[in-house]
Amino acid sequence: MLTAFVRRLEEFLFAHRGVVLGVFALLTVFMAWEGSKLRISAGFDKMLPSGHEYIQTFDAYRDQLQDANSIAVVVHPRHGDIWNAGSLKTLLDVTQALTFLPGVNRGSVTSLWTPNIFVTEITEEGFKADPLISGTVTPDALTPEVISQIRGRVVEGGYMGKLVARDGSAALIAASLQDPDPRTGEPLDYIALGHALEAQIRGKFENADVEIQIIGFAKVVGDIADGASGVLLFCAIALLLTILAVYWYCRSWVLTFQKIICSMTTLIWQFGTMHLLGLGLDPLAILVPFLIFAIGVSHGVQQINFMVREVAGGYSMYDAARRSFSGLLIPGVLALTTTLVSFITMVLVPIPMIRELAIVASIGVAYKVVSNLIMLPLAASYSTVTQDWSRRSQERRDNRGDWMTVIARIAKPRNAWIMSGLTLLVFFGAVTMSSDRVVGSLQPGSPELRADARYNQDSRAVADKFDIGLDWLTVVVEAPEESCGNVELVKLVDQFGWEMQNVPGVVSAESIASLTKLYNVGLNEGIPLMGTVPRDGQTLDYIIAQAQEAAALRGKGCKWLAVNLYLTDHKATTIHGVVNAVKDFRVSHQMEGVKFRLASGNAGVEAATNEVLEHSELPMMLYVYGAIVLLVFLAYRDWRAMLACCLPLTVATFLGYAFMKWQGIGLTVATLPVMVLSVGVGVDYAFYIYNRLQQHLAAGEDIVSSFEHALKETGIATVFTALTLSVGVATWSFSALKFQADMGKLLTFMFMVNMIMAITALPAFAVVLERLFPRRGPVRVPGLMNH
C-alpha cells in the first residue's frame, strides 16, 4: 500500500512538475515579502518558567519586591573616589538620564540623589527620616563641607556597599523596568533600550575621568543583538564552505545551487511564517533557522548522492531524479518526522521562549519535507548532464567507495562483536563522565557572552565593590496578619538570614530583622550589645513602623517579610547550593502559620529555569526515542531495526553530554536545541544507511555484503555531510558570543560522533543482532523495491 502511494505521488508530481515548481516559486516570493518584516525581539517574561513554584512567588510579589527585571548603572571615577564635586555631579546627571529612558519605572530609580533614599536618625522626639541629600543641595553647592556631610550620612544610613562601593570608589544607580512600556502599551523593546543605555548613558558620560558600568537584562539583550551580526557572518562562511564542498562532491554547479536554493527556500518560508504568526526572532534563538538549514544540507546531500549514483549507472537526469524521489521519500520522511517530533517535544518545557523556539524549529523541519524531498528532485529533473560527466562521476564514486570497503569489514561477525563491545565500553564511560553534568550557567556574569566581554567585566567589578549586585535571591516569609510585633517570627527571620550568610556564594542578607537590630542599637544610645531583635513586641512593632527602609521588606501588618540574599554570581552551582540551604532551613525550622516561599529575584528566576530544564530533559529524550522506536517499527516491522538505529544514537547522545562537561558547557536554553538537533541528525544517518541495508538484504545478499554495498552507496554521503557541516559550524567557535561558540563546538562534535556511530556501531550492532536472532521471514523494505 505504501509503495503504491509513493508511486502514484511520484507520477503526479513529475507529470505536473512545472506547475508544482511555479507554485513553490510564488509561495517563496510571498514568504520573502513577509519575512522581510521579521524583527529581532526579546522579552523578560518569555524567560520565566510558567507555573513553577518560584515563578508563582515571583508573580505574586512582583509589584512589592525588588524587581528581577532591573538595570544597575555604576559611576566609577578612574582616579580617586566618588567624594568630590565632579563625580557627584556626574552621578546626578546619570541618575536623571536613566530616569527618563523608555521603560524605566521612574519611581523605582534609587541613587544618592533620589528623594526615596532616607537616613533615619533618633532624636529626642523619636525617629526622624530625612532624604540622604536634602532637596536644597544643588551641584553648585557641593563644597567640601557639604560632601563631607553627605559622606557621613551615607555611613549613618548603612548605604556603604549598597549605593556606594565599600571602598568609596564608585556609586550605584538602580532602576526597575516596566514591561509593557506604560507610555505606549507595547512590549518593551529591550534591544532598543540596550542601545539607549549605551548611547545616552555610557556614550554620553564615560570619558577619561569617569567609567560607566552597566548591568541588567536589557543590556545583555542589547549586547547579544549586537553580536548577532557576527552570527550572520559565520553563517555566511558556513554557507560558502557548504557550496564549495557540495560542488567538490558532485562537480556540477547546477546541482550544487539547486540544493542550496532549496535549502535556503526553507529559511524564507520559515521567516515568512514566523511573521504571519506574529512571532519575532529571539536573540538566543537566532541560530535555530541555520540549524534547520544544516538538516536540509544533510538530506540534500543524500538526494544528490542518489542521483549521481543513478546517473553514473546509465540513467538520464530525469529518471535519476524520479528514482531519487521514490527511493528516498520514505527514509527522508521518517528522519524528518523524528526530527520534527524532537523539536515538538520542547513544547513540554514550560518556558515561553523555548516553546516559541520549538514552534519555529518545527515549522522549519516541516518545510524541509517539501523543499528537500519534493522540490529538489523536481528541480533536478530539468538538469542535463553529459556522458563525460557521468563517466567521471562513476570513477569518483568507485574511488571514494574503496576506503568505505575497509570500514565495511566491521560487519564481519568477529569484528562486529569486537566493535559492539568497544562501543558499549565507550557508552558506559560516557554515562559515568556525564552523570554529574551541570544544568544552567557555569560562569559568572552573562553566560551568553565571553568572559572578557564588557558586560561581564562590569558584572565582576560590581560584585567586587558592592555587597549587592544584580544577582540576588529573595525568600518571602508569609505570616499571619498583624505580625509586626511577633518577636519569635522576627527572630526566626534573623536566624534564617544569619545561616544563609554562611552559605558559600552568599555575600550578604538583608531583612526586616537586620534593620531592626540596627535601629535597636540607635534606641539604646548606640550600645553595640543592643544589636539584637527587641524582646518586647511593642518596641519591635514601633521600630518596624518607623524604619523607612523596611517598607520594601514587608507587607502591610507584616503579612509577609522579604529576605534578600545577595550572591557572588548566578552560576548554577552557586544558586543550587543556596536553594538547597533554604529548603533545608524551612524543613528544620517550622513555625505555625509561617511559610518560607522560594523565590524572587533574578537568581530565583534562574533557579526555576534550571530546575525546569533538569526535570524536562529526561521526559523530552524519552519522547524523542519513543518516537524513533515507533517510526522504525512501523517502517520495518522489525525490532532488530529499532535497536540497531537507537543504540548508536544513544551512545552519541551521552558522548555529547560528556563533551559538554569536559568543555564546561551547561545545559541551557541555548544548548538544549543542539542536543535535540543532534538526535535528529543522528537519525538521518541511521535511516538512510539502514534503508539501503534492508534493500540489499531483500535482494538476497548476506548481511556482510549488504553492509558493504550500503556503506559504499550512502556511507560516503554520510561522511561527507558530517565533515561539511562540521567545518561550517566549527567557524562559530570564533564568535564573540559565547553561546554561539559553545553551540559551534557542540554541533561539530555531535555531527562527527553521530557519523562515526552510524558507520561503525550501527553495522556492528545489526550484525550481532542478526547472529543472535536470525530472521525467520523475508526482509521488509519500506518504499520501492527496485532501487
TrEMBL record:
Naturally occurring in which organism (per UniProt): Stenotrophobium rhamnosiphilum
PANTHER family hit by this protein: MEMBRANE PROTEIN MJ1562-RELATED (PTHR33406), SSD DOMAIN-CONTAINING PROTEIN (PTHR33406:SF10)
Membrane topology: Multi-pass membrane protein
Domain SSD: 253-382, 651-768
GO terms for cellular component: plasma membrane
Alphabetical list of InterPro entries matching this protein: MMPL_dom, Mycobact_MmpL, SSD
Protein name (database record): RND transporter
Record-annotated membrane-spanning stretches: 12-33, 227-248, 260-278, 284-308, 328-351, 357-382, 416-434, 618-636, 641-659, 665-687, 715-734, 746-769
Keywords noted in UniProt: Cell membrane, Membrane, Transmembrane, Transmembrane helix
Subcellular location field: Cell membrane
Pfam family of the protein (one): MMPL
